[in-house]
Structures are given as C-alpha cells and as structure tokens.
Amino acid sequence: MISGELFECRLETEVGAIEVLAEVRVDGTLLELHDIVVYPATDHALAIGAASLLAAARSQVFSEFVLLGFETLLVTGTRLTGSRPGRRVQIRIDLLREVS
Known about the structure:
- About 20% of the residues lie in helices and about 45% in strands.
- By secondary structure, the chain is an alpha+beta fold.
- Strand 1 and strand 2 form a beta hairpin.
- It is globular and about 35 Å long.
C-alpha cells in the first residue's frame, strides 16, 4: 500500500455486507485509513456498531495488513449518521496483538 491510494474492501457482518473506502497513509509500520467511509453494500440501511465492524475487519483484513509489514492501524473519520453525527473518530489498533 502506498500513501495517497484508496483502500476499498467489502466486509461481511452478521447483519449484512458493508463497503469500506478510505485514503491510505503510510508512516513506516503505521497504516492509517484516513477519512474512512462505511456504507451498506445494498440499498437497505444496516444497523451496525463499531464493535461489529471491527470484528469483521479483524477476521477478514487485519492479517493481510500484518503480512504487508504493518504493525499499527489508525482509523480516522467523521461520523455522518447514527448517534452523534459530526463526531470525529480516531481508533488505534495494535495489529500484531489482534492477529496473534
């Protein structure tokens, strides 16, 4: 992954498939998914919380990030819908601990 690229993936969750889009920023072993956008893969709204989203990412993409040499994942964005729209989100994840 190279800074400035777009990261796109589809994650399967217990309530349905979601699409993820973010700008990639790389700083050594830190991977940032900047200004992340999460939306349903279908026309139907999905009620999915952060815990479910992280569980899907943990099982479906975290190991790929580690194989690419990343140790830490930083996810940033602004909440547009749901509870407290406008709230800035910043989540730091130790990938090595999560995939072991």
